[in-house]
Amino acid sequence: MATAAEPETLAAVSPAALALCSRRSRARHAMDLLFRLLARLSPRVAKLIEHDTALAAELEERRNAEAALRAAYGELETRVAERTREVTQANEQLQQEIQDRRRTEQSLRYSETLLRRLHEDLEDHIAERTSELTRTIAELEAFSYSISHDLRAPLRAINGFAAILREEHADRLDADGDALLMKIETNAAKMAQLIDGLLDFSRLARAESVSAEVDMAALARGVALELAGDERSRTVELTIGELPRVVGDEPMLRQVWANLISNALKFSAPRATPCVAITGEARDGEVVFHVRDNGVGFDMTYAEKLFGVFNRLHRADEFPGVGVGLALTRRIVLRHGGRIWAESNEEGTVFHFALPAAPARRAA
Predict the structure, then answer these.
(1) How many CB atoms lie within 10 A of CB 265?
(2) In a domain, 166, yes or no
């Protein structure tokens, strides 16, 4: 039974199997073709994929660059706006400064004009006052000189009559009369000294000075030795240091040394051993000299009165003099463009006077 049925089954199955086999065969063939095609296309596809990846990366970079560019552009706009504001503010400040400068320049021009006018008016006023002062000084000097000369005649008469009275009528004078006659002669002598001082003071204003280089050490030493020679009755300790040279009138400067050294000797006389020291040094474009003594000194409250004409800080019976020497000294120093001052305490007095320094000598 089985054997007889197999051919029928085979006959029935074969077309389906064949069809299936055919489809499978075509499928395999198609797959082979597909694999072959894929094998051929895979390099291109890989390249395309690679290219696509590169394009995507480049696109991403461009997007990032565009984003960075936009950010930079925004930041640049912000900075430009800030700089624009700053420039605008600076321009406004500059305009304000220009306006202020213009106003300042206008004010300065006005001030200069006003100052120039004031200066011109002041110069005219100074010239006028100087002329008036010069005339007044000349008149006062002429008056004092004339008065000094005119006073000599009655003073000589007083002295002459006093001398006649003493010579011819001395036996008729009692003690009181003799004392009164002595007072007349003493006061007449004092009056003569005052007139001489006034004449010296007047002559100094009219005297012409001759400027030359002066050896102050030799000048002071000569004056000191001459004055110390008059003090033979007592021992005087006199020291003179190195003194710089100055430019000035030698006779006038000799008078300065004579007045200051004699003043030091006079007021140190009450001491057991009078001491006078003369020093000097150059400083700050001037030469400062010092005359120091160990005398009785004076009250510094009245220091300014020392250099006034006929001003005295001690009684005439204590120390002789008429109060003209220091006034003459001050006038001479001022005439040389200098200055003079004094300091005093219980140990003594020191007079300082400063004169312009002599020009430096050129090497030969």
Answers:
(1) 21
(2) no
Domain of 312, CATH number, reads 3.30.565.10
Look up residue 15 and give its two tokens: 């077309």
The total number of structural domains in the chain stands at 1
Q: Indicate the pLDDT class of residue 204, thresholds 50, 70 and 90.
A: low
Q: At which residue do the structure tokens 């565009």 appear?
A: 66
Own/partner contacts of 17-25, CB < 8 Å, gap of 24 or more, are none
Q: What pLDDT digit, counting tens, does each position of 35-54 carry?
A: 777 667 667 767 777 787 88
- Spatial neighbors of 335 by CB under 8 A, at least 6 apart, are 204, 209, 252
Residues whose CB falls within 8 Å of the CB of residue 25, separated by 6 or more in sequence, listed in order: none
In a domain, 51, yes or no: no
Q: What domain range includes position 300? A: 211-364
**Number of other CB atoms surrounding residue 356 within 10 Å:** 14
CA-to-CA distance for 34 and 28, rounded, in angstroms? 9
Residues forming beta bridges with residue 348, ordered by sequence position: 345
Strand partners, 290: 279, 352
Q: Residues 321-349: pLDDT tens digits?
A: 556 778 888 888 998 899 999 898 888 89
Q: How many residues does the chain have?
A: 364
Collapse the DSSP code of 299 into the 3-class scheme (helix H, G, I; strand E, B; otherwise coil) and give the result: coil
Planar angle of CA 326, 250, 202, nearest 5 degrees: 45
What's the farthest any 2 CA atoms get from each other in the chain? 225
- Measured CA to CA, the distance from residue 279 to residue 241 in angstroms comes to 5
Helix or strand holding residue 343 (H, E) = strand 339-345
**What element of type H or E holds 355?**
strand 348-356
